[in-house]
Design goal:
Length: 174
């Protein structure tokens, strides 16, 4: 995989980005989750509610517009991470059978019985304290409690930090 990454990096670093849109990603999955290793003891992850949306939009403005409301209306599940009373992270969980990446204009069909976690985000000041790991673990617990075999994720090939978190929590590239 490392040779492949180097090849991609060398090729795409020399291609003018305005010529075409591309995204290379890894699809990862796990069917077993290890309990989270928390560096901070007051981390809680719970289901997101419409009341959480305003604050989460401030933390993660990339989504913009009404994307959060549309996801909730479509039955997707927001997971919200808090340290104490501070909302500091979130992720989305889709129980399937497919996941549409609107910004990438593509659809992923799940492996049978799997769910999909996406847009895992943690505020800068709370990164590297166990929040992302807690979100991954809660998503896995939630999916398993609803009869899913495991969880899949899409990670861009150059998002090293995200790959490290997922792979450090038992996800493998498929």
């Amino acid at each position: 995989a490392r040779d492949f990454d180097e090849l991609l990096r060398g090729f795409f670093d020399n291609v003018p980005r305005e010529l075409f849109h591309f995204d290379i990603c890894y699809v990862l999955e796990t069917t077993k989750a290890a309990p989270p290793i928390r560096r901070q003891t007051d981390i809680r992850v719970s289901l997101g509610s419409p009341e959480d949306i305003g604050r989460l939009k401030q933390l993660f403005p990339r989504e913009g517009g009404s994307v959060f409301e549309e996801r909730l209306a479509a039955g997707q599940i927001a997971l919200v991470c808090r340290v104490g009373e501070t909302r500091c992270g979130m992720s989305w969980l889709n129980l399937g059978p497919e996941h549409v990446e609107h910004e990438k204009f593509c659809t992923f069909l799940f492996s049978t019985g799997m769910s999909w976690i996406y847009d895992v985000a943690v505020s800068t000041e709370f990164q590297r304290k166990g929040c992302a790991t807690s979100l991954l673990f809660k998503a896995f617990e939630f999916a398993r409690a609803r009869g899913r075999a495991g969880v899949c994720a899409y990670v861009s090939w150059n998002n090293r930090a995200s790959l490290k978190v997922f792979e450090g929590n038992g996800y493998r590239r498929v």
